[in-house]
Predict the 3D structure of the following.
Amino acid sequence: MTSGGDAPGMNAAIRAVTRTALFHGVEVVGILNGYQGMINGHFRKLKSHMVSDIIQRGGTMLKSARSEMFMKEEGRQQAYEMIVEEGIDGIVVIGGDGTFKGARKFSLEQNLPVVGIPGTIDNDLYGTDYTIGYDTALNTIVEAVDKIRDTASSHNRLFFIEVMGKDAGFLALRSGIACGAEAILIPEINRDTASLREHLEADNKRRKLSNIILVAEGDETGGAFNIAEQVKEEFEGYDIRVTVLGHIQRGGSPSAFDRVIASQLGVAAVEALLDDQKSIMVGLMNREVVHIPFNRTIKHHKDVNRRLVDIQDILSI
Ligand code: F6P
């Protein structure tokens, strides 16, 4: 099952889960439309050929959804009845933080083995260095920002570019370094407008002609439009434009990196179920597969790499 915001590479993970289970002689049923589909009994038996020709496709062939009903105990009970009726003995769920919160409750209440695979472009899950979709989204951002840089330079403009990241700045930080952004604004770092002003003034002095500032959507400034308004009021001299990259970051063919980690984690998830694991997420730490209890991945906050923040600051002087 895939749940929450889709991410490029989810299909590669579905393929890996399906083929690994079949390899071990286990039948596979795809649950359509996330938890809502589970409640409604939307199941489809999956055979090997049904996951052919999907490794390179973005989105998720099982579709995804966010379900209000599954947050309630009755919703989860209804889902469990459907699962029993279908003869499902264990579940692999691909998603993010919210998905795993539901998975943990469900697994505990019903004593049902559930294994999670981290899939979100935000990369904000504790217990894994990378989530499926993050690398592809990064590459999409870099391509888009490079293009914006061309026009920013031609017109000597200051651009505020908003990238996704509900509560996290992983995408903004890493793409900021990759694109040579002049500054980044992320929820993990408290940067007030005064320090941004100093930075822009310094850029101005050394005649920096174009400026790109990457803003994580979850930053406390309230997003790119808000911060652009504030800066406009203070710096009349700047020719400011705003671009919100939006859902373009969620689509597209997964990068080779995402396809490979999706394959690794898909295999690991099925092997974990066969090994009687329940209520865990499979992750990748220092290139090794790890098993992290849902409890831990939900409770702990994954911080951005502070050294990368320093590097961004040093290189944008
Ligand atoms: O969690 C992934 C994510 O893409 C976030 O970065 C973003 O805030 C959110 O999903 C958008 O969700 P939706 O597609 O439901 O608007």
